[in-house]
Amino acid sequence: MAVPRNALRKWEKVRDWALRLPGATEEHPWGDTVAKVDKKVFVFLGGGGDGGHPVAVTVKLTDETAHAHALACPGAEPAGYGLGRAGWVRVPLEPAGAPAAELLCDWVEESYRTVATKRRVGELDARTAQVETR
């Protein structure tokens, strides 16, 4: 089954955004793509167009409003393997009404801020402030 192009474009945009965050690296455990900061996963990027798994993004959202918003998306659910209890939400990218890439990137940034060290978050804040002053 082919992945709709719009879902694949969202997946690629989210992946690119995640990997531009300070200290972010990409790994492929369990056959999925994940982005890590200092060896800690901050986003699971399921699928990616290989046809094996549905295209989805799984992020850790500790902000109650963002968490509730993510869970209200079509097909969204608490992440498996007990991660849902810690605030992880799996958001599929294929259904009609799936969130836009920009919102997904916001959630990836929140997940990064939750998982990253204070030093890494400081690097991100400094980068953001630098862009805003231009």
From TrEMBL:
The record's section on InterPro entries has: YjbR-like_sf (IPR038056), YjbR/MT2646/Rv2570-like (IPR058532)
Indicate whether DNA-binding appears among the record's keywords: yes
Respond yes or no to whether keyword DNA-binding is given for this record: yes
Give one GO term, molecular function aspect: DNA binding
Q: Which Gene3D superfamilies match?
A: 3.90.1150.30
Alphabetized SUPFAM superfamilies for the sequence: YjbR-like
- Give a Pfam family name: YjbR
Q: Which UniProt keywords apply?
A: DNA-binding
This chain belongs to which protein, by name? Answer: MmcQ/YjbR family DNA-binding protein
* Natural source organism: Streptomyces tendae
